Inverse folding.
């Protein structure tokens, strides 16, 4: 009995396939079993089946145990993040693909925005194609968690000290001769409240953006970056373009008007336009999609510094996506 399993584990900058062919296309990790009992020993039996809710709680418990071992705060369950994870797991299992983009071409930031989330979000996913019928079990959840732990980039995701919240989703699709199983975990950094920006704008549009950052952090800047617009994908495309993703590099930094902070050598353009109150954390800034900017997916991000952990550098606390067509 052969079991094919693809596991993709992603932070915001890199992806790992457990095996890949010499051509560069991600390939299957193949496991062989000679009996149903061996399959059940790895993935659990029908008698072990648990609910999606119980599976999510187990994965949260496993993740928090790992964080406690490393001296980190525990994550709290966040339902909108769980909705994002569940939608992605459902589509991957039912449509038989693995990718951080869904079939509409949306990454986790945009998918989180569409369910009302605005805080920074990162995603781990897993996909198993098994030539046997299995079920959602504690053994399967623990296996996903272990695979993520064994990837440096995804372990880093689980152990990011700035993450505060978590959501997970699982899907098991039993076909006639095999099971398609997927899981997703979302990690959220919640450090403020932000006004919802429009989902779509036209070139030349201007809006005013308000927010309030946790006053315990130092506001650094609002970043803008751009990438191609989302496009519809088919399963073949998804399975041949599994590689990692990351938000686009910040090209324009909007800084506090009265701030002398100048360590932005890596960002090409800077403007001092943010009205920021460091005592309350409130900020206001005019945002303009300049007329000469091309149609694209624009990322608006808020960056902050935890001055009690300066060695960690600034980190992203919010990511909102605006489509300009």
């Amino acid at each position: 009995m052969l079991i094919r399993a693809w596991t993709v584990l992603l932070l915001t900058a890199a992806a790992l396939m457990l095996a890949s062919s010499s051509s560069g296309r991600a390939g299957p990790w193949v496991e062989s079993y000679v009996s149903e009992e061996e399959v059940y020993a790895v993935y659990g039996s029908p008698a072990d089946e648990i609910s999606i809710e119980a599976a999510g709680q187990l994965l949260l418990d496993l993740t928090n145990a790992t964080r406690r071992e490393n001296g980190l705060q525990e994550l709290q369950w966040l339902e909108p993040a769980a909705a994002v994870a569940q939608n992605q797991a459902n589509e991957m299992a039912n449509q038989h693909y693995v990718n951080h983009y869904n079939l509409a071409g949306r990454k986790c930031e945009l998918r989180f925005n569409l369910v009302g989330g605005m805080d920074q979000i990162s995603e781990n996913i897993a996909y198993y194609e098994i030539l046997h019928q299995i079920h959602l079990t504690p053994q399967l959840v623990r296996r996903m968690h272990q695979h993520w732990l064994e990837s440096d980039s995804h372990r880093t995701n689980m152990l990011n000290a700035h993450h505060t919240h978590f959501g997970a989703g699982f899907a098991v699709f039993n076909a006639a001769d095999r099971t398609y199983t997927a899981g997703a975990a979302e990690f959220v950094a919640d450090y403020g409240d932000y006004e919802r920006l429009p989902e779509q704008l036209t070139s030349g549009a201007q809006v005013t953006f308000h927010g309030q950052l946790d006053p315990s952090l130092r506001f650094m800047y609002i970043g803008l970056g751009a990438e191609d617009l989302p496009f519809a994908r088919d399963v073949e495309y998804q399975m041949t373009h599994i590689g990692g993703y990351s938000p686009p590099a910040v090209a324009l930094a909007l800084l506090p008007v009265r701030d002398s902070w100048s360590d932005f050598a890596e960002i090409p353009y800077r403007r001092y336009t943010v009205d920021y109150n460091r005592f309350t954390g409130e900020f206001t800034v005019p945002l303009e999609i300049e007329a000469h900017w091309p149609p694209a997916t624009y990322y608006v991000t808020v960056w902050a510094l935890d001055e009690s952990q300066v060695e960690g550098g600034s980190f992203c606390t919010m990511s909102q996506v605006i489509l300009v067509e």
Q: What stands out?
A: The two ends are 50 Å apart (CA to CA). The first strand starts at residue 2 and ends at 6. The longest helix spans residues 52-69. The helical segments are 36-43, 52-69, 79-95, 108-114, 138-149, 152-158, 235-240.
